[in-house]
Input
Amino acid sequence: MSAPSLPARGPFAGLIGDIPASIVVFLVALPLSLGIAVASGATPQAGLIAATVGGILVGLLGGAPLQVSGPAAGLTVMVFGYVQHFGLNGLGVVVLIAGALQMLGGALRLARAAMAISPAVLHAMLAGIGILITLGQLHTILGHKPNSNAFANLGALPASIADLNPYALAIGAATLAVLLLWPRIEKKVPFLPGSLVAILVGTGLSLLLPAGFARVEIQGSLLDAIHLPTFGGFSASDFAVAGIALAIVASAESLLCAVATDQLHSGPRANLDRELFAQGIGNAVSGLLGGLPITGVIVRSSANIASGAKTKWSATLHGVWMAVFVLVFAGLLSYVPMAALAALLIQVGVKLVKVKEIKKVAAFGDLPVYLVTILGVVFWNLLWGIGLGFALALVLLLRRVSHIELDTQEATDGNLDGVIRGHLSFLAVPALMTRLQAIPPRRKIRLRFQLEGLDHAGIEAVRGWRKGYEKEGGTVEKASLDDLWHQLGGRPPAIKAIARA
Output
């Protein structure tokens, strides 16, 4: 008896089954998109445009079916700086350039290369962003506007506390209380995301309080907010530098999110090059429409998977629901108090500082990289922080691969036993030669090698020392370095064949 044939899976397979998950993701994404837009110094509509484009376009075209894309907290600090420097119209140019570079990277299959970043740098970058978000939004929850950098926010915090707005603080405290208590309740109502419930509670409380605190400002409809980017009075080189930086950070965040999302489900694995290309299309379109930059977002992606999503249609439909909401019900957003969004962002910011990852980084000896990166991000700027951390990571890597040890001891037969350990590369040759030349002359020494790496320069350095040592009356016994090179993955030079040729 032949096995029954499976029904063909058409392009809309899974559409109906993914509708419940898409609604949950939409409810998670809506308040986050609003909060991220406000924290970025942009209009709420800019965040909603990005969420809509990220959901529909990247959801349809991406290579990570269960990943959900949209505006991300990890880009908040960078985007805020660009908005302050270029303005909202200029931000569109930066996002468009970043999108074009991502499309180029995806077409050239460079997705893996974009992930060549030390975990210590990545986690410190996110933690630094979390600290900056928290410092800024503390002022909002106290009824004041955040400042442009960490020094200013820290310096102004005593004044904000002394002159706090009690209504804003009450709204923010109530919102935070719901966010903190929700994990104990969510199992009973898994279809309701805690972020949405918290914003609804904060908004409901605000309607019972007297006026005198800030709410979300919605000027016109979503269609009114759509605008083409303009260069203004800035040079193309200024935009190019900003676009390159944004492309690097956004690509790393999206691709690492895709890898993390793969670990949460057993479905098809992500095609990273296709995902990078789709992220580029999404950013190009978002930039053209006046939206924020887009990345893959792990909070929305994990909510998508936890809600039972099986195909790309869940992420795509969440973008459709976002578009319907902002076109029909955008006026409701003007009731949302800024303090409630600030509380949501403070929770997001605190969660970006992960103690578990700090312990892991320290266990691998990369704590200096983490600390340099986080200090650079918080007290300088995002790009310099990443650059300093990456540079220190490279320095420590070079130090590790140039580390070499030579231990010698007297054997029972009166000869010397020596062991060379570490990476015998051209970087380690100077240190190794210093140690070899310190061996007493005219002795018999047996050399053993316990190497993690070996190159041509290392082989030639040991050979040259052996010849010189034996000319002075010493004797050296050692294993064949050509054989060792072969064992370590290299190819021994065909010396005899070359000589005959």
